[in-house]
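Field reference: sequence -> structure
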Amino acid sequence: MEKKKNGIGMEELVSIVGELAGKYTGYESTSVTYEKAEQLMGAVLYCIREAEQAGGGSAILPGELSAKRLYEMGASCVVEKTKRALALYNEILPDFDSYGNQFLYDTFVEGLPEFFRRYDCKFEPQDMILTFDYPVMRDLSGLTGIDRIYEFILCIREEQRFLKRFSREFVINTLKQYNRDYEETPDNICGIIVRSSEGELFTVK
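Structure field:
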């Protein structure tokens, strides 16, 4: 009996990986290292999951589409989501304010452009590149690749919108009241302001 992965036959997956390996080597060879083959298999499975999750939540029934077609659809989804993520980033950046927090600044202003420069949609879409030193208020640990990056940027947009409801002076003073060294601390600054706006008192550290 043929082994299956995520409901898809291994033979189909290996065939797609072989085609991807050919593209990776410029069609000079389909022979790659074991580590690279694992990476390419991860890329294929990632794209197939993207296809299965696309379409407004409508499920794709097993056997409804070939593995290759699912992969191609998913690969297109990855490219489109990357474009949307970059457009959203560029929309936020002009008015972005880290309020002096170095972790937020380094991740958003320096880290994300590096991600977009290095991200490989075709051969390693599951890679995140970023270390996510700044924590957002949602648990994104179950996401990888462009899925995690896109959701991270969405979270930053919502944080920035919330913080701009207050004066910059209020935000910074509240952060300093919470922790006078907040600039060098990997805390979510939005969460601090949320708790403050709900009436929680802080002691100076």
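Note: Helices lie at 10-24, 34-53, 67-92, 102-118, 145-163, 168-178, 189-197.
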